[in-house]
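Lab notebook page, bench 4
Experiment: in silico fold of construct C2
Operator: M.H.
Input chain length: 124 residues
Purpose: comparison with the prior construct
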Amino acid sequence: EQQVLTLGDLSVRRDWGWAPEYVVAMHTMLQLDSVEDFVIATGITSSLEEFVAEAFCALGLDWRKHVVHDPNLIRANDNSCGRADPSHATQRLHWSARHTMPDVARMMVEARLARAALSVRHAA
């Protein structure tokens, strides 16, 4: 039995950052002597379709054979985000995201596969 992933609007765009990197940025902010506002982001947006394609590629699969579009899942107020500008964080914190969307998709797949393997070992 083949399972499918059902998604809404594949064209919606996001800044797909890696949370552990963002935690480093937050920690660096806390080290400052004064309070400032920062945008913590990669500065690059990618569509959900691009993210899904990368995730399935990490599994060696063609996403088009496993993803179903359901218009009922499209959120009325889910606008594509504009590109975030992390330049102030880069200048002031000497921080910038190192991981791009393809990295994030791959690392998420790898983490999920590792958890699944661990679950199988514990069940045996």
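Observations: The radius of gyration is 18 Å. Strands lie at 5-7, 13-14, 46-47, 67-69.
Next step: discuss at group meeting.
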